[in-house]
């Protein structure tokens, strides 16, 4: 894909932060604090500045912002922000960093500050003590949730990055199929390490999550543990491979099932049911259709065969592997598919005796329908 220029990146992050500023102004909040650390990863910092990890970001109602990174050199090379101050200046203390910058802020009318909803209660009390001039707030439905909702609808750059991750994932699937047929892949570890190698050769950062490769002896697990072993893959029967690759922060998420050798009628039925659910539910991945409708359709297909899927039909993807919304029958009617969402479609069935089948692809919701941007499949090997 064509990478944006530095100025285009700068304008991209400014536009995203301006929405946060507008939220602060509308809700009469003076500042918002975002914290990314080993204790809790906060994708909003990368979304709003381009900086990848370990930092404090403060956005003020007057439009100003300050980024306080642990790795100053890395931040100067990759971040877009108004002001950058190294974390070491504050003795590597989030509390001191926030306290100093809030107290030094000029032109703030509303002395309310929203802290992340994931901080602990003792830390919340510490912030209250350290900021006597501020009305310190911490809520589930504040600006942090607003940013989550903004991230739900991908902009052009996010769509391009996810499509590139999807393209590379497809190339890897093609190579896996070739190496299965040539005999180069014989174990779960073989296929997992192939993925690790190929994604980096193609410019990706990492896997989106720990790869799950389960041969016939354990494909009955929804998420096999451990993720991969020295066990045979793919052996005779049903094998599952679930993986994602990350390009510029954005992940793909695909699952293919390998059906090898002669299968029993019951195993064939599992395959046919999952394929039918994937085909029929895709028709409901469209603008303004409640996400629960697709989930209920999958549940109905499986229930008619006296089977039950033990997980949701899908979820959004982006800077995180599981983003809002979930494609679940538990969602309310007002949660609908919207253009710009990228959502997985992953029907699956699992049987301790027969093995498991899951088919997962990533779907971009468009104004006129949808676009399936990955091309995972049920792969049959004689």
From TrEMBL:
<dbReference type="Pfam" id="PF00557">
    <property type="entry name" value="Peptidase_M24"/>
</dbReference>
<dbReference type="InterPro" id="IPR050659">
    <property type="entry name" value="Peptidase_M24B"/>
</dbReference>
<dbReference type="InterPro" id="IPR036005">
    <property type="entry name" value="Creatinase/aminopeptidase-like"/>
</dbReference>
<protein>
    <submittedName>
        <fullName>Xaa-Pro dipeptidase</fullName>
    </submittedName>
</protein>
<feature type="domain" description="Peptidase M24">
    <location>
        <begin position="161"/>
        <end position="367"/>
    </location>
</feature>
<dbReference type="InterPro" id="IPR029149">
    <property type="entry name" value="Creatin/AminoP/Spt16_N"/>
</dbReference>
<dbReference type="InterPro" id="IPR000994">
    <property type="entry name" value="Pept_M24"/>
</dbReference>
């Amino acid at each position: 894909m064509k990478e944006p220029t530095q100025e285009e990146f700068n304008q991209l992050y400014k536009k995203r932060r301006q929405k946060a500023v507008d939220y602060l102004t509308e809700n009469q909040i003076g500042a918002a604090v975002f914290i990314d650390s080993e204790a809790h990863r906060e994708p909003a910092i990368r979304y709003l500045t381009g900086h990848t990890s370990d930092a404090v970001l403060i956005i003020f109602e007057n439009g100003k912002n300050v980024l306080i990174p642990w790795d100053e050199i890395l931040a100067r090379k990759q971040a877009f922000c108004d002001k950058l101050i190294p974390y070491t200046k504050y003795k590597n203390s989030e509390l001191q960093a926030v306290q100093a910058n809030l107290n030094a802020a000029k032109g703030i009318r509303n002395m309310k500050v929203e802290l992340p909803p994931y901080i602990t209660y003792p830390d919340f009390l510490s912030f209250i003590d350290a900021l006597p001039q501020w009305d310190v707030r911490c809520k589930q439905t504040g600006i942090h949730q607003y940013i989550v909702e903004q991230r739900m609808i991908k902009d052009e750059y996010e769509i391009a990055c996810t499509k590139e991750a999807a393209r590379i994932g497809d190339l890897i699937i093609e190579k896996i199929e070739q190496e299965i047929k040539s005999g180069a892949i014989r174990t779960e570890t073989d296929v997992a390490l192939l993925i690790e190698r190929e994604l980096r050769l193609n410019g990706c950062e990492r896997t989106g999550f720990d790869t799950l490769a389960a041969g016939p002896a354990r494909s009955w697990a929804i998420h096999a543990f451990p993720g991969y072993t020295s066990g045979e893959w793919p052996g005779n029967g049903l094998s599952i491979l679930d993986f994602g690759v990350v390009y510029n922060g954005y992940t793909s998420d695909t699952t293919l099932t390998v059906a090898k050798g002669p299968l029993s009628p019951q195993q064939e039925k599992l395959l046919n049911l999952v394929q039918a659910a994937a085909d029929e539910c895709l028709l409901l991945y469209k603008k303004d259709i409640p996400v629960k409708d697709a989930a209920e359709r999958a549940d109905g297909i499986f229930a008619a065969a006296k089977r039950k899927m033990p997980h949701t039909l899908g979820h959004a993807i982006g800077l995180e592997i599981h983003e809002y919304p979930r494609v679940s029958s538990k969602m309310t009617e007002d949660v609908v598919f919207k253009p710009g969402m990228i959502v997985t479609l992953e029907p699956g069935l699992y049987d301790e005796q027969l093995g498991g089948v899951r088919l997962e692809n990533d779907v971009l919701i468009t104004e006129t329908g949808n676009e399936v941007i990955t091309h995972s499949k049920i792969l049959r090997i004689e």
